[in-house]
Amino acid sequence: MLVLSRQKDQTIMIGDLIEITIVDIRGDKVRLGITAPTAIPVHRKEVYEAIRSENRAAAHVAVSDVSLLEAIVKEVSGLRPQASGKRPAVET
Question: What is the pTM of this model?
Fold first, then answer.
């Protein structure tokens, strides 16, 4: 890990596109201003970890869930009308 010392209003550059500025220092808290291209997501680590966890959970989809989704999409788009006129039951 690279450790740098900076004072208020000083900046650190990461590559050519990311700029981190020390905005304020109060006691044991430091406020940072981050300038980065919109294509580069910037999150606090705990938010980043929560997003990763949710994405991993969403990636583990059961085949039966995909089949159910396919049936619903076909019904809604009119490709295959259901005999009973009801949508398949959705498990939660």
Answer: 0.60
What whole-number distance in Å separates Cα of residue 88 and Cα of residue 68? 7
Q: What pLDDT, in 10s, does the model give residues 52-74?
A: 999 998 888 777 878 888 888 88
DSSP label at residue 88: P
> Encoding tokens for residue 25?
């220092």
Cross-strand bridge partners of residue 33: 21
Q: Taking CA 64 as the corner, what is the angle to CA 61 and CA 83, rounded to the nearest 5 degrees?
A: 140
For residues 81 and 84, give the distance between their C-alpha atoms in angstroms, rounded to a whole number.
9
CB 1 within 8 A of CB 9: no
Contact by Cβ (8 Å): 9, 24: no
Q: Which strands sit side by side in the sheet containing 11-14, from one edge to the other?
A: 11-14, 18-26, 29-35
Pull the structure tokens for residue 76. 């809604």
